[in-house]
Specification:
CATH topology: Jelly Rolls
CATH architecture: Sandwich
Order of helices and strands: HEEEEEEEE
CATH class: Mainly Beta
Mean pLDDT: 83
Helix content: under 10%
Structural class: mainly beta
Shape: globular
Strand content: over 45%
Radius of gyration: 16 Å
């Protein structure tokens, strides 16, 4: 995968990059952020993974150990308010689209959990975009 980043390390979406390349003002366009979480083998807390004024656009999950796993994601431990149950099959990739806004005042933790990891290993690529306006 190829990403374009601004000087602060934030990925620029293609529309934003096109405006920058053209020399026009780009103050109202959204910035995308891509975060990778590799080698998840047990329940995990992603602290403040969704920043203030950002939307959780999608998560690409990839299972690499050859084991099916049922994932749930919540805003608190044990919750399923973001993803109820999703069966990720052994050796596959699934793109889940959320387009979910959490807060304009604080970052949002997410808890990724399974009732039985059973040796599964999951990589996650989290894509966010910033609300502007």
């Amino acid at each position: 995968m190829s990403y374009t980043f601004d000087y602060s390390g934030v990925e620029l979406n293609s529309a934003f990059k096109a405006v920058i390349d053209s020399g026009l003002s780009a103050t109202s366009l959204t910035l995308n952020v891509v975060t990778d979480k590799a080698g998840i083998v047990s329940d995990a807390l992603w602290s403040d993974v969704v920043a203030v004024n950002y939307v959780l656009e999608s998560i690409l999950f990839a299972e690499s150990a050859g084991v099916d796993v049922v994932l749930k994601i919540g805003t608190t431990s044990g919750a399923r308010d973001v993803l109820y149950q999703h069966k990720l099959l052994a050796g596959t990739k699934d793109l889940l689209v959320f387009n979910r806004f959490f807060s304009s005042t604080s970052g949002q933790h997410l808890y990724v959990e399974s009732n039985d990891w059973n040796g599964a290993e999951v990589d996650a690529t989290i894509k966010l975009y910033r609300l502007t306006g």
